[in-house]
Amino acid sequence: MTRTHRTFRIASIPADGVGTEVVAAGRAVLDRLATTSGEYQFEWVEFPWGCEYYRSTGRMMDTDGLDRLRDFDAIYFGAVGWPDVPDHVSLWGLRLAITQGFDQWANVRPVRFHPAVASPLRGAEDKNLDWVVVRENSEGEYAGLGGRNLAARGPGNEVALQTALFTEKGCERIMRFAFDLARTRPHRKVSSVTKSNAQQYGMVLWDEVFTRVSGDYPDVETESVLVDAMSAKFVLHPEELSVVVASNLNADILSDLGSALAGSLGLAASANLNPERRFPSMFEPVHGSAPDIAGQAVANPIGAILSGALMLEHFGLHDDAARVHKAVDIALGGGILTRDIGGSADTARVVAAIIDAL
Ligand code: NAI
Ligand code: MG
Predict the structure, then answer these.
(1) Which residues lie below 8 Å from residue 173, measured CB to CB, with a gap of 6+?
(2) Ligand 2 centre and the CA of 307: distance in Å?
(3) Residue 238 gets which letter from DSSP?
(4) Which of 184, 28, 54 is nearest to 108 (CA)?
(5) Mutation test of ligand 1: which of 257, 259, 265 has the most ligand atoms closer than 8 Å to its C-beta?
(6) Is 180 a catalytic site residue?
(7) Longest dimension (CA), the chain
(8) CA distances from 122 to 117, 230, 235, 262 (A)
(9) What's the distance, Cα to Cα, between the start and end of the chain in Å?
(10) Is the separation of the CB atoms in 283 and 77 below 8 Å?
(11) pTM for the complete prediction?
(12) How buried is 221 (Cβ within 10 angstroms: 0-12 exposed, 13-18 middle, 19+ buried)?
C-alpha cells in the first residue's frame, strides 16, 4: 500500500543558553513521532545565529537571513539572549527581526495546567483551568518606534521616546483571530485586555475595534478588563478565562504570569503565526535562554516540545499533536519532573520518558 509521504522542511534556530538544549529535545521527540507515524518526516536545517554568532560577526543573524528562512515550512526557535550582549540588541537582531519581518502577527500562548504539576495557586487542582493568551505580535508597544536624543545636553539630561503603535487593521485582525479561536473551544468567550483609562488614544481604539468585531460573533461571550485588574483575575478567577486577547506588551507579561501559575515558565509553549501563510510561522517556548541554569542539562524541555505540538497543529496534524500532549502527560504523571517543577530529572530523562510514552 502506498501512502503519501510528506517532508516538512524546518529551519531550526536554537540560539542561546537553554535554547540549544530544549530545541535538541524537541527535535528528538518530533523525529520519533515522525518515524512512528510513517507518513511524514522532518528535514531540519540548523542556523547558528545568536549571541555567539554576534560575538564573532557583529550580527545576530546574516543580512540575508530572512531570505534564507522564507521558503521553509516553519521555524523552530529556542531562545535568544546572553548577559554579554545587551538584550535589546539580541532580541531585535534575531527574534523580533523574524516575527516582524515575516508578519507573524498572532502569538498564541496556551496556559495549560497539568494534574501532575503543582500550581502555586491554592485550590487549582479542583478547577478545570485552561486558557489561551492571544498576543498581538506586530505592533503595539513593541513597534520599535521612538528614539533617544539630546545626549549633547550632558549627563542626566537624556530623553527617550518609546511610542506604541495601534492600527485599526492590526487590532481587528488579532481580535478576529481570538474570536475564531474561541469558537473552537468549549467556553466561547473572549476577554480583551485594555488600559484605556490611562492610554486614551491607542487603547481606546483597541476597545472600539473590540466592540465592533464582537458584533460579528454574537455567539461568543465577551468582557473587557483593564490590564491591572486582569492580572488579579489570572490569580483570583482563572476559571472564568478562555481566550484572552491583549496587546504585545500586556500579553507578554500576562503569559509569563499564566505559565508561572500553571507551574513553571519551562512548560509554556507558543506559536508566532502568519495566519495568511505568506511567510513561515515560528514555534518557540515562552521562556528565555535561562543563563542561570544553562549548560547544566536540567532545563525543562516541555515548553519547547509542546511548541512542536503547536507546529504539528499548524501543519494540520491534529492527532499527532494530541499524541505529543498525551505523552507529556504520561511522563509528568509518572513523576518524571525537572527541578523547576519540583522533581530531580534532567532534560534527557524527561525526553526519554516522553519518547517511551509515544
Ligand atoms: P528566562 O525565561 O530565561 O528565565 C526566567 C527564570 O525561569 C529563570 O529562573 C530560569 O532558570 C527559569 N527557566 C526558564 N526556562 C526554563 C526551563 N526551560 N526550565 C527550567 N527553568 C527555566 O528569562 P530571563 O532570565 O528574564 O531572561 C534571560 C535571557 O533570555 C535574557 O537575555 C532575555 O532577553 C532572554 N529572553 C528571550 C526570550 C526569547 O528568546 N523568546 C524570551 C524571554 C527572555
Ligand atoms: Mg516574555
Answers:
(1) 105, 106, 275
(2) 15
(3) G
(4) 184
(5) 265
(6) no
(7) 77
(8) 13, 18, 9, 11
(9) 24
(10) yes
(11) 0.95
(12) middle
pLDDT in tens, 16-38: 999 999 999 999 999 999 999 98
pLDDT tens digits for 207-266? 999 999 999 999 999 999 999 999 999 999 999 999 999 999 999 999 999 999 999 999
Calculate how far, in angstroms, residue 97's C-alpha sits from the geometric centre of ligand 1. Answer: 19
Residue 32: DSSP 8-state? H
Listing DSSP states for 124-136 in one string gives GGGS--EEEEEEE
Q: Which ligand is nearest to the CA of 293?
A: 1
Q: Which residues line ligand 1 (CB under 6 A)?
A: 18, 22, 79-81, 87, 91, 95, 265-266, 284, 287-293, 299-300, 303, 340
Compute how many other C-beta atoms are within 10 angstroms of the C-beta atom of residue 161. Answer: 9
Q: How many CA within 13 A on the CB side of residue 43?
A: 8
Calculate how far, in angstroms, residue 40's C-alpha sits from the geometric centre of ligand 1. 32
Active site residue 195: yes
How much distance in Å is there from the Cα of 268 to the middle of ligand 1? 11
Q: What's the pLDDT at 1? A: 42
> 61 burial class (0-12, 13-18, 19+ CB within 10 angstroms)?
buried
Report the nearest atom of ligand 1 relative to the CA of 299. Answer: 19
